[in-house]
UniProtKB/TrEMBL annotation:
Regions that span the bilayer: 64-86, 98-119, 131-154, 174-194, 215-233, 262-280, 317-336, 417-434, 441-461
Keywords: Ion transport, Membrane, Transmembrane, Transmembrane helix, Transport
Name of the protein in question: Sodium/calcium exchanger membrane region domain-containing protein
Topology in membrane: Multi-pass membrane protein
Main location: membrane
Entry annotated with the keyword Lipid metabolism: no
GO molecular function, one term: calcium:proton antiporter activity
Gene Ontology biological process terms from the UniProt entry: intracellular calcium ion homeostasis
Chain coiled-coil ranges: none
Region (Disordered): 1-39
Organism from which the protein derives: Microdochium trichocladiopsis
Lineage: Eukaryota, Fungi, Dikarya, Ascomycota, Pezizomycotina
């Protein structure tokens, strides 16, 4: 579960921690709020948490721009200097054919747009009851990634005769695993590194690492089953030739259909697991989220400054969400449109999906997590890293399989062996670093180094038309050459028998 800007919730719930320890918290209208508080308020203005109030109503442009500029933390506010790239990227897309420049401008413009979406989602969530606020932050924390995956699957189009052109499924698969790896290695590594520089050693709650790492292993198990199924059976297949003698054989096409069906069924189960996880975190009195707040709220070095910051009104939060959604969607469409040109320029598919796309769609969230670690809130920072990884594995990745199913596009979870190995090894490395319940700058540096090694390997990894370690195309060619010769002999024998 991705709690975009959980820090806002940590600060906002700090004021009512004493009451929450007795399972009650004061509400805006003087009523009490317990773990059984309804998911959504009966009225949009009812049960507004005191810490979420702005003291105003309506829309005020000057105040809106001021709050937007301050953002959720100092690092996020620096991102706002990139806003001029947004109109430049959109304008270039309409007036220029410089595809690489358009891709580069859109890539940079995505950072402030995604940052605004996360911040606006946090501001809106703070005006909701506790449980609803958590669920809303979960949604907005992953919406950029969901939009990216959906745009990619919609744009996927492989027609007869055009070879691999328009095949975006390998990029989607790489982006799913790349998002998990970016959070586990790069984001977590930077949090450990910068937190360790300022605080030497930071200790985190055991429930964060135990539950997070356990869920990652379960999610990885579900994601990798289709790949394992394919790898175990691909050597037993015969070419999918339209001959009567093969009608009962286990063909490559049959295996591919089976893998697709397994992926679709597995995706449904993983999404169900994700909602169970969200419900547990949102409703349990001793949930992971509560443990994070209780341990970190007193360690936030700039807690008072966060509490004193001006806030969006409800109207301003909704306007910010709408604007950021429009910008994010338009920029992602432009990015996806230019992917073919970027690949033709020499950037490998696997590097694009595994490294470039996850970096930009997670940039704003990573900056916030690093700022949390710098301020001593290592539990919240750790949750920023593990939570989005869990959500990508349990919800975002399976969701794109379901969308592809609806659009009748063969999106499955049959990942390349190379990427499967990276995911498993990364989870094991991170789990080993989390085992002792504390972090330092050296562990962070080592995680970043592992990520850099993966990026180097991804750059040199061939495109799917060459590297098909877990694909149908590369396997079929060798078998077709041998099997066809044998089949011709069988046909000749059958013909001779019929003539007799």
């Amino acid at each position: 579960m991705s709690h975009q800007h959980v820090r806002g919730h940590a600060a906002s719930h700090a004021a009512s921690q004493t009451d929450r320890d007795s399972s009650t918290a004061p509400g805006h209208n003087g009523s009490t709020s317990t773990e059984s508080t309804p998911l959504l308020p009966t009225s949009m203005l009812a049960n507004v948490a005191h810490e979420g109030e702005s003291g105003r109503s309506g829309f005020h442009p000057r105040h809106f721009l001021h709050v937007l500029w301050l953002s959720s933390c100092t690092v996020s506010s620096w991102v706002n200097v990139l806003w001029p790239f947004v109109p430049v990227a959109i304008a270039l897309n309409f007036v220029s054919d410089a595809h690489l420049w358009i891709f580069a401008m859109s890539y940079v413009a995505m950072v402030p747009s995604a940052n605004l979406l996360g911040f606006a989602g946090q501001e809106f969530a703070r005006k909701m009851p506790k449980v609803a606020g958590i669920l809303i932050e979960t949604t907005f924390g992953s919406i950029v990634e969901i939009i990216l995956f959906i745009v990619l699957i919609v744009k996927h189009n492989v027609e007869e005769g055009n070879g691999d052109e328009g095949n975006l499924i390998p990029i989607i698969q790489a982006a799913i695993l790349g998002s998990i790896l970016t959070n586990l290695l790069l984001c977590l590594g930077l949090c450990f590194f910068f937190g360790g520089i300022r605080h030497q050693t930071e200790k985190f709650h055991a429930i964060v690492s135990e539950v997070g790492n356990g869920l990652l292993l379960v999610a990885a198990f579900g994601l990798l089953i289709p790949s394992a199924f394919y790898s175990a059976l691909k050597t037993e297949t015969v070419p999918s030739l339209d001959l009567h003698v093969l009608h009962e054989k286990f063909t490559e096409g049959k295996l591919q259909d089976d893998v697709l069906r397994i992926s679709q069924a597995t995706s449904i189960v993983l999404i169900m697991a994700f909602f169970l996880y969200v419900w547990y975190c949102a409703s349990s009195q001793h949930s992971l989220f509560d443990a994070v707040i209780e341990q970190d709220e007193h360690g936030d070095t700039d807690r008072e400054a966060d509490m004193a910051k001006p806030k969006f009104t409800l109207t301003e939060a909704l306007v910010a969400i709408a604007c950021s959604l429009v910008f994010v969607t338009v920029l992602l469409i432009i990015l996806v449109d230019k992917i073919e040109h970027v690949v033709e320029s020499g950037v490998p598919d696997q590097f694009l999906g595994l490294i470039l796309l996850p970096l930009v769609e997670k940039a704003a969230e990573h900056l916030t997590a690093v700022d949390e670690a710098w301020d001593g809130m290592i539990n919240v920072a750790l949750y920023h890293c593990l939570g989005p990884s869990i959500q990508t594995a349990l919800f975002n990745g399976p969701l794109v399989v379901i969308v592809g199913w609806i659009l009748k596009k063969p999106m499955d979870l049959n990942f390349e062996i190379f990427m499967v190995a990276l995911l498993v090894l990364s989870i094991l490395v991170v789990g080993n670093f989390l085992r002792d319940g504390e972090s330092n700058w050296l562990e962070g540096a080592l995680l970043v180094i592992v990520y850099i090694i993966i990026a180097i390997a991804a750059w040199y990894y061939p495109n799917p038309d060459v590297a098909t370690s877990n694909g149908i195309e590369g396997l079929s060619e060798g078998y077709v050459a041998i099997s066809t010769e044998n089949l011709r002999r069988i046909q000749q024998l059958l013909g001779e028998t019929n003539n007799q």
